[in-house]
Amino acid sequence: MAGRYIDVSAKDGGSFKAYLATPEKGSGPGILLLQEIFGVNQYIRSVADSYAEEGYVVLAPDLFWRIAPGIELAFDETGYKKAFECYGKFDGDAALRDIADTVAALKTLPQCKGKIGALGFCLGGLLAFRAAARGSIDCAVSYYGVGIDKFLGEAPQIKCPMVLHFAELDKYAPPAAVEAIRKAFAGREDIEIYNYPGADHAFARVGGDHFDKPASMMAHSRSIALFRGVIGPTGSSTR
Hints:
Number of helices: 6
Strand order of the largest sheet: 1-2-4-3-5-6-7-8
CATH superfamily: Alpha/Beta hydrolase fold, catalytic domain
Radius of gyration: 16 Å
CATH topology: Rossmann fold
Number of strands: 8
Strand content: 15-25%
Helix content: 25-40%
Distance between the termini: 23 Å
CATH architecture: 3-Layer(aba) Sandwich
């Protein structure tokens, strides 16, 4: 399944690219896909294509466009060095504005029918959490979101269901951070928090050093269950 790039206008000026993947039948609920610190690279595009096969219209914005437009980094020493350089210059609040503009663009696409969920990995996992706090999406899935514990003041603003995936051995989201997140959402049955024993950061990245197939499959089943339950598609058609 081949996707394509579209242009998204930024309300504060300029425009940026976003990778669009659509289901074979042409329409479906929307998913906002939020990148790792490596840009909208082949891996992120493959995730978009995979969810399109599941029946979703997926849009993955280039959240580094203000720093290095169109950057795509490999998971090697050079890629990691450049990724952390970009991350050091990253403006999270500006990214949230770009996310809001991407959601608005997704809603205008004729292929997008019904509700919209967010899916993010690493940096994108944090941004999915923060986007949920702003009320522009209907549900959110965060994979090993880094730094969520530093934004728990935004937790009361989150009204939509969420699934948060964490890895037991993840030094970027250590046990103390995960426990603080659990406490912040104590009593919220619509917020599901899972920890995967023996797994490390980026355990869902196929081909990565820490890829853990059992953990990845379990996490995906939980993510799809949330999306199906909240935004569909259900039955033979979508709204």
